[in-house]
Amino acid sequence: MTTRLESFAQWLENQAVGFTIGTNLFVGFIPPKRPDGTDPPARCVTLLENAGGAIDINLRDRVDKAIQVLTRAENYDEAHADALTIFDLIHGTQGLSLPEWEAASGMTYVAMLLFAYGVPMSLGREEGSSFFFFSTNYKVMMRNGPVH
Length: 148
Description:
alpha+beta
């Protein structure tokens, strides 16, 4: 079963902006090793679920999810550039046709609107390493059903 976050990662990879799942795009965490046994690259992107989701009792087919995007690089400017690339791609996107998002209802969720809570922000260096991180939090407003 594909999770919503994995579907979002697949959409991001499909945009051909240089991020590939399992190579330099990770879901949930940066693994200690990639599937081929090599270390993950210093320059990478990680997608995280953030703060659960919100529902509206008046709109049963509606749910909102929060996604955090972390970019990492040994160079501050590269980490910032990757965060801005993703920000420009995501912020304000409407009616997004994503790979299938499975729901308990058996229906497909569609992203009606994606927006950032703010611009990418530096988290500074990772403790004990030379990696710089940037974080951006996004809200994904979803509903059941096909894109109209």
